[in-house]
Amino acid sequence: MEKILIAGATGSTGKRIIEILNSSTSFEPIALIRKEEQKEVFEDMGVTTVMGDLEKDLDHTVKGIDRVIFAAGSGGNTGEDKTIAVDQEGAKRLIDAAKKANIKKFIMLSAMGADNPSSNEDLKTYLEAKANADDYLRESGLDYTIVRPGALTDDLGLAKVKLGEKLNERGEISRDDVAFLLVMSLADPLVKNKTFEALEGREPIKNALIDMSQA
After folding, report:
1. Residue 85 sits in a domain of what CATH number?
2. How many domains does the chain have?
3. Which of 84, 97, 112, 158 is positioned for an S-S bond with 58, CB 3.0–4.6 A?
4. Model's pTM, two decimal places?
5. At residue 215, does pLDDT exceed 90?
6. Which one from 42, 126, 144, 180 is the annotated catalytic residue?
């Protein structure tokens, strides 16, 4: 089984990713945690953890890892300094570590609007940080997928989405469905080196990813 490092494992979307991967026969989740007290939750699930801080050196966190999902982020709800430190510089730090470790694929959870941060004044710093991290990943030479969802909800996932490089509309999507999109993007050659937006929709996730791969 391939080992998948999940940055942001303690977050709402990260926990869903862990749950999906934990029942997979192809992938084994490795939860990146920052505090010792976070370990127990994952141990109870039978999930391996690795200690690491996105604001510090991360080279040790990718040893023996095959692929990475970056689902960490402030969501634009923290101060500007923290947003840049985590969403931008933390992502860059993990990309650098992944590149050194010859990671097979890096999956980035970004945000709709990252292609035009000035369109949303309230989230401008957050979207700029996401945009910079996305650009850094695209230029890294790593195989990647960048998923840019609309507003995240805690609704039950419907496993049906609308994907596109640019959807030209705003909307919502459940964290459940975003987690499935990120996990399914791990598989090759699905959505290799693709950046796309995602909203709830009518097309089954797997079909939508196949269509996006061929776009």
Report:
1. 3.40.50.720
2. 1
3. 97
4. 0.96
5. no
6. 126
